[in-house]
Design brief:
Length: about 325
Amino acid sequence: MQILRTPETQFDNLFEYGFSPNYINIEGEDGQALRMHYLDEGPRDGEPILCLHGQPSWSYLYRKMIPILTAAGYRVLAPDLIGFGKSDKPGAMDDYTYSGHVRWLNLWLRKLDLTGLTLVCQDWGGLIGLRVAADQISRFKRLVVANTGLPSTAMISDEMSGFLGQMYPAVPVPDAAMVREQFQSGGPGAFLYWVKYASESPSFSVRDVFGLLSGVTDPRILDGYVAPFPDDRYIAGARKFPSLVPLLPHHKAERLANDAAWAVLEKFTGRTLIAFSDGDPVTKGGDATFKARIPGADCITIPNAGHFLQEDEPAAFSSAIIDFMQKG
């Protein structure tokens, strides 16, 4: 496995990102060491909050929230998933699997040996983080679920998966504009356009993804999000994520693994906050599954926010987390 490491100079003087780096080595399945980066801010004796990003972001996504949460007395940890941010980046798309990401984060969490955690997860931070929480549930006190999902066999039946599998070959390789049109239309195959754009389009770019899924136009912020990817050699992980969402027939094992995670989460004795935004074209309506399967959860809607609610409404999202934690 070829492992790439983004040069540190890429991260010089990033806008609004004045945090100290922390690194830990974890072992890949082939025995190679992978260096994983994480932020660790706030008082060491504060209750720990684990903030997980998705695709194609990194810990930069939480840069506005971290000062708010630490000012309230909390310790905030925000790792960069393997393939993203300042963490190492395996160079081939085939190096990335859903279970592999879960394994990497499980290893990171065991090495840090954190307990009493509040998980804050969005996008792939939820698909991975909720699996890790289920694997190590005794470490978690609370869950905050935002703009994410955990696709299971109850959500994606074999029949639906087969239908999507039949649709996928007929989907053209789109550009970003076509993906936007599909999301706006709300058609059943819209996500397949997203998968094919990320995995196959020669025009795929991290900058364009933020154009698709956010209202961010400030070039300084966009430069921050693309900093980990100095050229296309570094974006295999970002390209692979959408095609790892377990929708298609060959993903059955991951849906079953998610079934096992749901069985743990439904019995979780801690507290859960479901906090979806009102303007996310990707996960719209996904909160209904969490509300149905975790009926005792607190529920709020973050208004005026899209997919990246940490970027769009960091103060409102942070306040919701603080209020939730202060209730016990």
